[in-house]
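User: Batch of two.

Assistant: Item 1 of 2:
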Amino acid sequence: MALNDTKITIPCPTEQNPDSASDSGSDSDMSRRAQWLRAAILGANDGLVSTTSLMMGVGAVKHEPKAMLLSGFAGLIAGACSMAIGEFVSVSSQLDAELAQLKRDQQLGQADMAGMPSPTQAAVASALAFAIGAVVPLLAAGFIENYKIRIAVVAVAATIALVVFGCLGAKLGKAPVVRAGVRVVFGGWAAMGITFGLMKLFGAAGI
């Protein structure tokens, strides 16, 4: 009778090349930076779309420049605060979970703390990103008295910014640039169009 031999291959430990470890660390740092930049671009896109939609919605029923600008500033402040608080709470929860895990593993040390996320930094970054996007329609509408021209300029400025944010986000996320850019632009147009259209209906109905 023939016997079948079962062979178990035991991998031999290999010595890690210092240059390879250095390259791995560098790649990790670049990946983290790309993630931060992508998150910042998404935050700026949120600020752009929400503030532009708010201004156009108010502009649908109030033709005065002051009304649009005040609504834009209110949206900027409220949105930036909301983003900052939400990010602070989210990162704080993540930090608490990571610290609890480290304590359970009895690995809490100075080196571990150095790599922990900062809720304050995350909150400030989110607020700034949102504000940068929200400033675009405010600057576009700030110096135009004519109502129709103001609405058109705000829409064009927002579209250009959407293209830029969409392409940058896709580039950092290693996604198809054209498809991602088109998706971001159409999403922004949908938000602005729906807001403007509904407010126009409410204004016509006297609500």
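Item 2 of 2:
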Amino acid sequence: METRELTVVAGSFVGFQLLFSVASPLFSSVITPGYGRLPSTKLTEWNSRLVSTVHALIVGFFCLYILWFDDAVNADPVWGDPSLVKLNVAITCGYLLYDLVLLAFNWSTMGDSFFVCHHLAALYAYGYVLTRGVLPYFANFRLISELSTPFVNQRWFFEALKYPRSDRLVVLNGVAMAAVFFLVRIAVMPSYWASVFATFGTSAFERLGLGAQVAWITSCIALDVLNTIWMYKITRGCYKVLTGAGGRKAKGGAGAGALSSSDKQNHVNNHTD
């Protein structure tokens, strides 16, 4: 890994930590008085999700820029010039490391084995991008999924502030979350895997070596399985809200998540692929 990428990973880690511990509390207390009334455990997760949203917006739009304008990567998805992709991946790796540390220190309230698997699978695959500069198109493509994260986090913010699930903003955000989650994590699977299969048997694929091939394919399978599980939970919650089943089950709805399938799923996927 080059000095530039190491610097970006370290800077990303420190920057997101400062955003979590300094900037988020200041900003949040200004935009909503409800922030100061939250219990300490929810304050921690609030700050975590605000950081998650900032990260998602940065890498999500950077990802789209690369897909639209980086001709070298689009022309050669396996060995194209990875300069911009490595920057985006380095930002994400710094964020993932920050989040793993945060989860470790707050395991009793925020710990989730799904997230640990998600983060480790992503770091394992992205490590090859940073160290060898391989698979830039595919690594960048996975980051499209981050565009759904702000909606997931906003659902949790509404719940923390005790918005009723029948509130118009909650319902609109919930429907948008389900739609965007499907578009950027599920609907893209066929085209993504078609591009993957198109590389099989080519000289570019053979040059990767067994290690990179296994890291690429296994991590993608793991991430897509997780995304499918999360999509199922979101869809089920969305159906309950739209049909009114959730509102009848939790009379009044105050404090309930807009699209939660259960209260145990409050922390569902606010992280990266």
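Confidence is low (pLDDT under 50) at residues 248-269.
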